[in-house]
Design goal:
The chain has 401 residues and is an all-alpha fold. It has a domain at 336-401: Leucine-rich Repeat Variant (Alpha Horseshoe). The chain contains 24 helices and no strands. The chain has helices at 15-21, 27-40, 45-54, 60-72, 81-87, 93-106, 111-120, 126-139, 147-153, 159-172, 176-183, 189-202, 210-216, 222-235, 240-248, 255-266, 276-282, 288-299, 306-312, 318-331, 341-347, 353-366, 374-380, 386-399. The chain is elongated, with a radius of gyration of 31 Å.
């Protein structure tokens, strides 16, 4: 935890003197003492006891600093938990926030702490609620009684609070994943959407819900399908089964679902190769965002995508040809496999000048390995397009002709 000021204190000041300073009549002196003692740590029981008393100091900055310092001491400050619980109901939100953080840092799953943190999940201030979720997560299964409060927090108006509540739920009670799996089939749309969101935020911990999430891709509501796509990308983007399931969603009737899916697949890296046919079809989508994500994903596949991209350049669809050209441009000519030489040689006669030029560049990058393309390259030196002629000559020089 960060303190309010840099730790620059006199080396001659002893722990005893700092303890005495906690009772000084000047608030600044008391605040500095609380800060210093937090950095010294609980070398004696007296430090914890003194800081605990300072939680009731008449100055709000001193109370806040005492809470922070106790939190820095971790489990060794567990005797201060009841006092910190009372501080979670302070009128000033920055003090409530620090008290909640301290309870999480101390990590003592005392019933009073679980109750106080559960109550803090309804605090009017976002960051108090957020830190309450994080504190409960740190308490783990010792905070199981907070489950219902955390389930309610899945409806919080702030997405990062909902995400933190989901992670806390998985920590306090792993069995909740089974409950959320069933909730994916709930009659209410909000409940299904919330369950998908929560499972996604749990990441790897929710892998047991993958099958249920794939089934939920067939939900009637596009908002739920969007959440499910997002959840699968967070939980299981490494498996071919999930990639295949997501690939089908690129043809979803909902624009938002297609956008979410295209973005999700862009995070799959080389694994997105299994979705290449559907991604190439997405080049024809009426929405430019879907097309852009699809081009980005296919570009990331590198040389593996080149044969299909060259075929796509023959499409009658303008968007498809444009997408293929963009992807090829992004991939570049470097790293082309020698096995593509026959295909690239044939492409030198393509009706599209871009294809001919790109193919000549690709052959040039292969050097002597493209020697079998020499006859086609010699013909290309007479191409009507200047760029094609230029690269054909460069490619011939590179192959040693």
């Amino acid at each position: 935890m960060q303190s309010l000021a840099p730790a620059v204190f006199s080396k001659q000041q002893t722990t005893k003197q700092w303890l005495e300073a906690l009772a000084d009549s000047r608030p600044l002196k008391r605040w500095r003492a609380a800060l210093a003692l937090g950095q010294i740590g609980p070398e004696s029981k007296k430090i914890v006891e003194s800081l605990q008393k300072s939680l009731e100091d008449g100055n709000e900055l001193v109370r806040r600093q005492a809470a922070e310092s106790l939190g820095r001491m971790g489990a060794r400050a567990k005797n201060a938990v009841p006092s910190l619980c009372r501080l979670t109901r302070e009128p000033r939100d920055f003090i409530r926030q620090q008290a909640v953080r301290a309870l999480g840092a101390i990590g003592e799953a005392h019933p009073e702490a679980v109750s106080a943190l559960s109550h803090a999940l309804k605090d009017p201030v976002k960051f108090v609620r957020l830190h309450a979720c994080e504190a409960l997560q740190r308490l783990g299964n010792g905070a199981a009684k907070a489950q219902h409060a955390l389930l309610d927090a899945l409806r919080d108006p702030e997405e990062d609070v909902r995400a933190a509540a989901a992670r806390a739920l998985a920590a306090v009670d792993p069995k909740v994943i089974a409950v959320l799996k069933k909730t994916l089939a709930h009659a209410e749309e909000d409940m299904r959407s919330g369950a998908a969101f929560a499972l996604g935020e749990m990441g790897d911990m929710a892998r047991q819900a993958v099958a249920a999430l794939r089934t939920a891709l067939r939900d009637k509501k596009p908002g739920v399908r969007c959440r499910v796509v997002q959840a699968l990308s967070q939980v299981d983007l490494a498996s071919t089964g999930t990639i295949a399931a997501l690939a089908k969603m690129l043809a979803d009737r909902s624009l938002e679902v297609r956008r979410q899916t295209a973005e999700a697949l862009s995070q799959a890296g080389p694994r997105a190769r299994a979705a290449l046919p559907q991604l190439l079809r997405a080049f024809q989508d009426a929405d430019d965002q879907v097309r852009s994500w699809a081009v980005l994903t296919v570009s990331g596949l590198g040389a593996h995508a080149i044969p299909e991209l060259l075929k796509t350049l023959k499409s009658k669809n303008d968007h498809a040809r444009s997408g293929a050209a963009q992807a090829l441009e992004e991939i570049g000519a470097q790293g082309i496999a020698p096995t593509l030489v026959p295909l690239l040689s044939k492409a030198l006669t393509n009706a599209d000048a871009f294809v001919r030029s790109w193919s000549a560049r690709a052959l040039a990058s292969l050097g002597p390995k493209a020697k079998k393309a020499a006859p086609a390259l010699k013909k290309a030196t007479a191409d009507k397009n200047e760029d094609v002629r230029l690269w054909a000559r460069k490619a011939l020089d590179a192959v040693g002709m």
